[in-house]
Amino acid sequence: MTTDAANEIAQGTELLDKVLERTPTTRVVSFGYDTALNLGALIREHHGPRSVVCVADETTWAAAGDRVGQSLSSLDQVNRIILPARPRPYANIDLVHQVRDALAQTPGALPIAVGSGTINDAVKLAAAELETPYWVVGSAPSMDGYTAAGASISKDGFKQNLACAAPYGVIMDLHILKTAPQIMWASGFGDMIGKISAIADWRIADVVGVEPVDPWVRELAERSALNALSDPSGVGARAESALPSLTVGLLMSGLSIQAYNSSRPGSGAEHMFSHLWEMEHVGLDFDPPLSHGAKVGIGSVAVAALYDELLQLDLTAMNIPERVSHWPSIEEALERVDALHSTEALRNVAASQLPKKHPEPHELERRLRAAVAAWPSLRAELRRLMKPADEIRDSLVKAGAHHHPHQVGLNKDRIRVDYLRLRSTRERYTSFDLAEETGVLPDIVSTMFGPGGIWNEWPDEIR
Ligand SMILES: [Zn+2]
User: Fold this and answer.
1) What is the separation of C-alpha 405 from the centre of its chain, rounded to a whole number of angstroms?
2) How far is the CA of 143 from the centre of ligand 1 (A)?
3) Rounded to the nearest whole angstrom, what is the distance from the C-alpha of residue 449 to the centroid of ligand 1?
4) How far, in Å, is the centroid of ligand 1 from the Cα of 137?
């Protein structure tokens, strides 16, 4: 290990330990080389002589099983649930119940997830249903959910973030993580590039009086992004030197979500693009299926493109009474968005989510007055915070990550519609809501897809 890597691990560990003082569930984050070898001792220290059940699939067990098995050999009883690699396990509610029922065969045992997104989410929710703490040994730097509360599980036909507690302990062993395929490193990078617009969207929601920013959590979320995004080319080359900062960023981001008890610090409109595409099963038939981080990365370019246009506008010139007088009722708003949605499931989502944030005229007027009053300073702040869409895309390219909708089979007309219907898919207030409420969204979309606009050029094969 180089001195640089050793320093980075030491600094990251110090930072993580400080954050752990504020998290409700996670007590241990063990990050560095060979940390998986301490798993058995840590479990004994924190839970006494307890039996454990490892949950992995054949792929993640091949990556981490030797180290985990060796470390746990000092415990009295160690059982394993190894899911087949093919067909690839998919994080749906059936998998959660399968894991839960298998875990219940060893009453009182401590579950240990050995894997990344799918295994971790399934065990997280299964452990919550069994009312037991659990641990996770990460197998790839692919997303920030290791340290976050909530599990992303497909239920009733689409992916949902289901509430459940974060793990008690998280082991990130760089010897294991470095063996993950580059596509999983790129996914972690894509998930983290989304934190920039997540924070910007939160700040907008703050200014219009919808959801105040927690300064401590915001700073943590920003630092997590700075860490994770510091070496895109290193991520692209799968260089071991890029791994500590990417991993610390992912861990801190999840901890910020856990500390705030909501995904708000790490999830804005870019995650809504990802969820929308997830609900429509985009890339589900790819091998491997299109990752969460890949979708978030593409969504981040799309959101940055909206910001590029929004931040050029002078919202202080807006005629507020005129805007309020043309504001649609919730019934009209739902009717418009229903015409844009392709499935009944999405119309149901809109019907449940949009009313939670669609303002009555007096509330709209209050939000608009707040936005207009703050606009000169807010615009300057957001310009410093947000990266231009070109820059976001270039970083993703360097990181070997997905960066354009055409790479996942989405055509130009589809993305245009997605811009117009996105806000109906979740109650969370974002830049898209400000653009809609101020009435600038349709013009922004026309500009982005018009001559000279970012989406004007599109590869021929998927027009
Ligand atoms: Zn994410």
Assistant:
1) 18
2) 6
3) 27
4) 19
The arrangement of strands across the sheet holding 28-32 comes to 28-32, 169-173, 135-138, 110-115, 52-57, 78-83
Q: Tokens standing for 122?
A: 């399934």
Neighbours of ion ligand 1 (CB under 5 A): 191
DSSP E strand stretches across 59-150: 78-83, 110-115, 135-138
CA of 428 to the centre of ligand 1 (A): 15
* pTM, entire model: 0.96
Apex CA 236: angle with CA 234 and CA 239, to 5°?
A: 40
CA 271 – ligand 1 centroid, Å: 6
- Ligand 1 centroid–CA 188 distance in Å is 9
How confident is the model at residue 219, as a pLDDT?
95
Query: Domains of the chain, with CATH numbers?
Result: 3-180 (3.40.50.1970), 185-462 (1.20.1090.10)
Burial of 22 per CB tally in 10 Å (0-12, 13-18, 19+): middle
For 436-443, the CB contacts below 8 A with 24+ separation are 437/323, 437/359, 437/364, 437/367, 437/368, 437/371, 438/315, 438/318, 438/323, 438/368, 438/371, 439/318, 439/323, 439/326, 440/310, 440/313, 440/315
pLDDT of res. 461? 67
Give CA–CA dist 271/290, Å, rounded: 14
Going from the Cα of 132 to the center of ligand 1, the distance in angstroms, rounded, reads 25
**Measured in angstroms, how far is the CA atom of residue 179 from the centroid of ligand 1?**
22
CA of 150 to the centre of ligand 1 (A): 11
Instruction: Tell me the CA–centroid distance for residue 292 and ligand 1, in Å.
Output: 7
Kindly give the distance from the C-alpha atom of residue 123 to the centroid of ligand 1, in angstroms, as a whole number.
18
| pLDDT averages per 10-residue partition of the chain, 463 residues | 85 90 95 96 95 97 96 93 94 97 96 97 98 98 96 85 95 98 98 98 98 96 94 98 96 95 96 94 92 98 98 97 98 97 92 97 98 98 97 98 96 96 97 98 98 88 69
**Alpha carbon distance 184, 182 (integer Å):** 5
